[in-house]
Amino acid sequence: MAKEQVTVPDIGGGEAEVIEVLVRVGDEVGLEQGLVVLESDKASMEIPSTAAGKVLEVLVSEGQQLAEGAPILVVETDAAGGEDTPAGVAAQEAADEAAVAADAPAAAQAESRPSTLADGAAVGTAGGAGEEQVVPVPDIGTDGEVDLVEISVAVGDSVAEGDSLVVLESDKASMEVPSPAAGEVLEIRVKEGQKVSQGTELLVLRSAGGSAAAAVPGAPAAEKPPAPPPQADRPAAPPPAPAAPVQKAGVSAGVAAGADVYAGPAVRMLAREFGIDLSQVKASGPRGRILKEDLHAFSRERLSAPAGAASTAGIPAVPEVDFAKFGEVEVTQRSKLDKLTSDNMQRSWLNVPHVTQYDDADVTELEEFRASLKSQAEKRGTRVTPLPFLLKACAVALKDNPKFCSSLADGGDSLVYKKYIHIGIAVDTPAGLLVPVIRDVDKKGIWELSEEVLEMAAKARERKLTAAQMQGGCFTISSLGAIGGTGFSPIINTPEVGILGVSRTRTAPVWDGQAFVPRQMLPLSLSYDHRVVNGADAGRFLTQVVELLGDIRGAIL
Ligand code: CAO
C-alpha cells in the first residue's frame, strides 16, 4: 500500500475555482476518473485522477481557487512504497504530464500557446472585404478527436467576429469555436455528431471586413491574428439584463442541445443520453451550473407530470400557429441574447408580483444646471445626460430605503440587505438588451458617473462587457428618455426588487399657486416586487427621487 497525492495539472496558467468535488473520502477511484471540476474564466474542466485506489483525504472544497500543483486529494494505492516517495513523486509528475497532454483544458491551453491554425485559411484573394475563408477547428489543446455537438449557424447567416460557430465537446471540456471574422456563412462542411480534430474544416465564411480574412494559407501562424480562445461551456452573455438578468436561455437546436447553458461535459453527455433539453433544466449548482442531480430531478418531474400537461408553472402553452397559411412569412433565428432576455423576462414576470408607481420630477433647474456643464464637459471630452443625476438620486434613495437594496433568500424566508450601492443601467444594443452595473454609485461624482456610463454603454454595444461588469447590481435604471414615451412599466431585473423606468422629459404647464408656468417634467415609473416592498415604501422611495431631482444639491452633496 502507498499513499499518492493527486495535484492540479497544467491548467494553462493562473487559478481556477473548484466548482464541484466529484469524490468523497472512502470512494474508490480509477485512473482518469474525474475528481473535481475546475472553472477559470475561459473553461471548465474535470481534473482526472492520476492514481487508482481509495480516497483517504480530500484536500479541496468548492469555491476554493487552485493553481497548477495544488494538492487535490490523497489516494491509497495498491503499489508498494512509502509515503510520498521520490519514485512516487516522479511517477506523479509523469502522470501529470500525461494528463496535461491528454486532458488539459482546451481553452486554457489554446490561450497559453500560440495558435497553430490561426483563424482560417483564405481561399480567395487575400485582403479586402468579401473574401472567402475556410474556418477550421483551431488548436483545442489535444491532437485527438472531439465530438461536434452543435452547429450554431446556418448557411446564409451573418455572423460577427467572436460569434459561436460550433460547439465541441470532449469527455473533459466543452467549448465554442468563435468566428474569426464578421461575415456570411457560405457553406457548412461538418455535421452534428461528427468527430473532428484540430484542422477539420468547419465552414466557409465570406468575410465582411477583410482584416481577419487576410490570412493566407501557409503563412506562419504568428503573423495571423490570434484566435480568440474557445469559450467554455458558459453562456456567452452571462448575468443580468434588466428584466434580462443572467441565467440560461433555451436553445432552438432541439433535444439536449443547450449550448447557452452552463453545464459541464459529463452533464451534457448525460443530457444527450436521456434526451433532455438542458435549457429546460433548473440549475442548482454554483452560479447557475446544472448538476447531474438537476437532470435526475428534471426526469422525475417529467415522468410524474400528467400526459399533455401544460407548460412551466402550469400555464397552458400558447399554441404554435402556422402563419404561412395567412400570407408570406420569414422565419429568423433569435440571437442568444434575445433568448436570454426572453427567459429572464418571463421568469421575472411569472415569479414576481409587480406593481408600478408613476410620478413626474420637475427637472427644470436640473436641466439648467446640466446645460451649464456642457462646455466643461466638452473640455473633459465627455457629455452629461440626465442619467448620472438619476443614478445619484437613486443611490441616496436606496440608502434611505434599504428594502429597495435587498433580495429575497432561503426561498423567501430571509431578506439580504446589501450594504453597497451598485446600480445596473439597461443598454439597448444591436444584439439585444444588456445591463452593465455601475459600482459604488454613492461614492462617485457626476463627472465620474458620466464617463462610466458612456464607457459601459459603448462596451455593451461592442459586446465587450465582462461577466463581472454585469453582476452584483442592487437596482436597475431603464432609461428610454432619449427615445421617447410618456411612461412604461419596466420588468424587475430579478433577484433585485426594484427598477426605475425613465421616459422623455417634456415641457408641461405646472400650477405654481397663481398661474400655470412651463416646467421641464421627467416621467418616472418605479416597478417593485410587492413581496418585499409595499406601496408605502415605494411611495417614499419615488417621492424622494422626485424631490432630489427637483433640487439635485441633496443628491450630489
Ligand atoms: N428626456 C429627454 N432627453 C433625454 C433623456 C430624457 N429623459 N435622457 C437622455 N436624453 C437625451 C440626452 O441628454 C442626450 O442628448 P444630449 O446629448 O443633447 O444631452 C440624448 O438624449 C441621447 O442620450 P443617450 O441615450 O446617449 O444617453 P443616456 O445617458 O440618456 O442613456 C443609455 C444611455 C445607455 C441608457 C441609452 O443609450 C440606452 O441604451 N437606453 C435604452 C435602454 C433600454 O432599452 N431600456 C429598456 C429596457 S426594457 O426593454
Report on the architecture of this protein.
The protein has 557 residues and is an alpha+beta fold. The protein is built from 11 helices and 28 strands. Strands 18, 21, 24, 25, 26, 27 and 28 form a 7-stranded mixed beta sheet that branches. Strands 9-10-17-15-12 form a 5-stranded antiparallel beta sheet, with no helix packed on it. Helix 8 crosses helix 9 (446-461) and helix 8 packs across helix 10. It starts with a strand and ends with a helix. The model is unreliable at 81-128, 210-259 and 307-311 (pLDDT under 50). The site of oxidized coenzyme A has 23 residues, from helix 8, strand 22, helix 9 and strand 25.
How large is the count of helical segments?
11
Tell me the name of the CATH homologous superfamily of the largest domain: Chloramphenicol acetyltransferase-like domain
Mean pLDDT: 79
CATH topology of the largest domain: Chloramphenicol Acetyltransferase
Q: Give the overall shape, derived from the CA principal axes.
A: globular
Q: Could you list the spans in which at least 5 consecutive residues all have pLDDT below 50?
A: 81-128, 210-259, 307-311
Approximate strand percentage: 15-25%
Report the radius of gyration as a whole number of Å.
27 Å
The CATH top-level class label of the largest domain? Alpha Beta
Major beta sheet summary: 7 strands, mixed
Helix content: 10-25%
| Associated small molecules | oxidized coenzyme A
Structural class: alpha+beta
> Please, how many domains?
3
CATH architectural arrangement of the largest domain: 2-Layer Sandwich
